[in-house]
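I'd like us to work through together how a protein chain folds, taking it slowly. To get us started, please write out a protein record for me. Go ahead whenever you are ready, and we will take it from there:
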Amino acid sequence: MTRTPTRTRLLDAARKAFATRGYDAVTVIELEEAVGLSPGSGSFYRHFRSKEDVLAAVVDRELARTAERNAARERRAEGSLATTYADLLAALDDLRYLMAMLVRDGDRLPIDRVRAALAETGIAVDAAHLRSLMEAGSIPARDPEAVASVVLHALVGYHLAEQFFRSPVGVDRGRFTLTLADLVAR
């Protein structure tokens, strides 16, 4: 069995701690403890220069994962809208820690890079998919960027409602994504 590298374990622990408690509430000693390093030993500093450095690395890793997901979505853009929207909800699940960090400590994050990676690139990828469906006559011709923006905001809203209320708020994901796809296709 291969052990996860300490740097990766520190990134995972920091991501969760920053998301759940906020940057200011987390100490380096707690991060060391969370991954089995001797608390207060300075072992953390073999992997990161500072708490700010680990925050930047957490954000960079989340944005890299987002870029990989967006590239994969571009490659398989032939899927149904409902499947695409279900995949986007799953991606939002993967981004829950970064979203929580944005809420708690958005002023500490590179908001322009985060917005570009999460919103602008996501809308561009979805608009390209919608444009191809429109050109094929599969869905009505409209402003694909505006439709992609509305869809993204609907998905984020649904995801946040699930997070806040701990349940699907009257309509499960399958029904939600099918209905959203149906509305876009009309």
Helices lie at 6-21, 28-34, 51-75, 81-94, 96-105, 111-135, 144-165, 173-185.
